[in-house]
């Protein structure tokens, strides 16, 4: 019997053999080894937001933990009835609560210290005027939460003891800004001057990596956007407006890089903002913006 092989069969065989050879080459042991030779760093920093006084103060406390070492801290636990259940659940699950951290001394940030400390006898780290403070870290001094690196950044203006805390876990970065920096805004100058807020925002915080996520002390974004649109209505502000209208919470959703685009207090060199404020000097622009916002 004579077997006839068609041209189509020959072409099909050649194609299949080529594909098989390519697959073998692609998944050869050497290639696989090189593809997966880079170590994968598992980030361990976990941040839990705890809303407080929703509808009035709209504050945030933050429970930060290292999931590997099981160490945790609580930031600005101002309203114990809303915070303590979360702390109890965290400790019950095997975590060791080691510190209370305050961003500044105002009652809606440090007012819960006494009651929290009564339940958990742990030191309080924060500004010099915070209730029962045990240690005030110096500017740019460092400490750890488990394996998470923490840098204290002094940002006086809203209060003279305001401190922001910059956290790094590998490439995962976060900054807890209290009432210094909000999403799309900044705090009132209760104890400081425009020059101090300019330095805090546009020198100290602006120097952080752009991918640093921002965790402020309050959910004020909608109001901040409403004001920003009166001063500058760029694409970044429009996007922030859309997000804030569609989402109840904005903490940790935006970065320092984002703030440089949509936060008018971090754009004091912008010609459009200078035109609206009638000022040229960045510090004068900062002061004019704050006055406009306070009276808006």
Automatic annotation (TrEMBL):
GO-annotated molecular function: hydroxyacylglutathione hydrolase activity; metal ion binding
GO aspect biological process, one term: methylglyoxal catabolic process to D-lactate via S-lactoyl-glutathione
Required cofactor(s): Zn(2+)
Keywords attached to this entry: Hydrolase, Metal-binding, Zinc
EC number: 3.1.2.6
Catalytic activity entry: an S-(2-hydroxyacyl)glutathione + H2O = a 2-hydroxy carboxylate + glutathione + H(+)
Residue intervals of the Metallo-beta-lactamase domain: 58-218
InterPro entries: Clx_II_MBL, HAGH_C, Hydroxyacylglutathione_Hdrlase, Metallo-B-lactamas, RibonucZ/Hydroxyglut_hydro
Enzyme class label: hydrolase
Pathway terms, separated by semicolons: Secondary metabolite metabolism; methylglyoxal degradation; (R)-lactate from methylglyoxal: step 2/2
Pfam families, sorted: HAGH_C, Lactamase_B
Family: Belongs to the metallo-beta-lactamase superfamily. Glyoxalase II family.
Name used for this protein in its record: hydroxyacylglutathione hydrolase
Phylogenetic classification of the source organism: Eukaryota, Fungi, Dikarya, Ascomycota, Pezizomycotina
């Amino acid at each position: 019997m004579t077997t006839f092989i068609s041209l189509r069969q020959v072409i099909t065989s050649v194609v299949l053999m080529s594909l098989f050879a390519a697959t073998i080459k692609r998944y050869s042991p050497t290639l696989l080894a090189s593809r997966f030779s880079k170590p994968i760093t598992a980030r361990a920093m976990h941040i839990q937001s705890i809303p407080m006084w929703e509808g009035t103060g709209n504050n945030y406390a933050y429970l930060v933990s290292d999931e590997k070492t099981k160490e945790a801290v609580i930031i600005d636990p101002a309203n114990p009835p809303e915070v303590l259940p979360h702390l109890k659940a965290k400790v019950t699950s095997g975590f060791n609560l080691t510190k209370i951290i305050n961003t500044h001394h105002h009652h809606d940030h440090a007012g819960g210290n006494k009651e929290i400390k009564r339940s958990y006898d742990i030191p309080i780290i924060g500004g010099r005027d915070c209730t029962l403070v045990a240690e005030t870290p110096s500017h740019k001094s460092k400490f750890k939460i488990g394996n998470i690196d923490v840098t204290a950044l002094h940002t006086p203006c809203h209060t003279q003891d305001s401190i922001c805390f910059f956290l790094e876990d590998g490439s995962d970065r976060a900054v807890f800004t209290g009432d210094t920096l909000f999403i799309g805004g900044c705090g009132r100058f209760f104890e400081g001057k425009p020059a101090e807020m300019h330095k805090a925002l546009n020198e100290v915080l602006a120097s952080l990596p752009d991918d640093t996520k921002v965790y402020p002390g309050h959910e004020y974004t909608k109001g901040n956007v409403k004001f920003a649109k009166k001063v500058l209505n760029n694409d970044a502000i429009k996007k922030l407006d859309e997000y804030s209208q569609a989402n109840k919470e904005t903490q940790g959703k935006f970065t320092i890089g984002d703030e440089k685009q949509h936060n008018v207090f971090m754009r004091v060199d912008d010609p459009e903002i200078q035109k609206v404020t009638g000022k040229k000097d960045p510090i004068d622009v900062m002061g004019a913006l704050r006055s406009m916002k306070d009276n808006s």
